[in-house]
Specification:
Blueprint (H helix, E strand, L loop, with lengths): L5 E7 L8 H8 L7 H19 L6 E7 L7 E3 L4 E10 L5 E3 L5 E4 L5 E5 L15 E7 L9 H16 L16 H6 L31
Antiparallel strand pairs: 1-2, 2-8, 3-7, 4-5, 4-8, 6-7
Length: 218
């Protein structure tokens, strides 16, 4: 049985962070400017951790999803929330790159994860039998920092503050997890998809039954 392989690349990263350096310094009671660069780096790292844990994209970034052929129906879009689908392209049987007209498909950005299906009475075109013959460009992420759930923002602040105070992997003093801490706050909006095996008629290519763990697959 042939497996419809896929790949996912972030082509345009987010241009801002969910937490500003000023807000982070106020949260952590940091009163000097010398560590602004360090604080910024910890914010970025904490945001990346939150995105991996929640299987989400927090602020707008552009991705390119490629797979070997069109599925029979639904294409699922990882890293919600889905903001928009920029283009769907494919290699036709002659090897020419074609852009699928927007009238040929429907985008459901309200679902988590987002979905793309053929439009009413339409079907996906036949693509060339070749690896990465189909590509979907899309933008994912909340429109701005103010739209991100506050539980997620608070978790980012807590994690960045912890890394700022504890800069080594180990410590001499005994440390314990904070009850209802970072993981609990991030779990409030964590995305788990149990709607079927990816690559079936209801999902995008792959062989994964749920999101979670590392990245958006497990």
């Amino acid at each position: 049985m042939n497996v419809n392989q896929w790949s996912l690349v972030r082509t345009v990263p987010p241009t801002s962070e969910p937490v500003s350096v000023a807000d982070m310094k106020q949260h952590s009671r940091i009163y000097i400017a010398d560590d602004d660069g360090i604080v910024s780096a910890y914010i970025s790292a904490a945001r990346a951790f939150a995105e991996v844990y929640q299987n989400k994209q927090l602020l707008p970034a552009t991705y390119r999803l490629k797979f070997d052929w069109f599925p029979s129906w639904t294409i699922k879009i990882p890293f919600p929330p889905l903001a928009s689908v920029t283009a769907i392209k494919y290699l036709d049987t002659g090897g020419n790159l074609q852009t699928l007209a927007t009238t040929e498909y429907l985008v459901d950005a309200d679902s988590v994860p987002g979905r793309i299906t053929p439009a009413y009475a339409k079907i996906w075109p036949v693509s060339r039998i070749q690896i990465s013959a189909v590509e979907v460009d899309f933008v994912a992420g909340y429109p701005d920092a103010g739209s991100i759930p506050q539980t997620t923002v608070q978790a980012i602040k807590m994690l960045a503050a912890h890394w700022y105070e504890q800069r080594e992997e180990t410590a001499e003093r005994r440390m314990a997890s904070i009850p209802y801490g970072v993981a609990d706050l991030l779990a409030v909006d964590r995305v788990l998809d149990f709607s079927g095996v990816l690559g079936s008629s209801n999902n995008m290519p792959g062989a994964v039954t749920a999101w979670g763990g590392v990245g958006w697959i497990q």
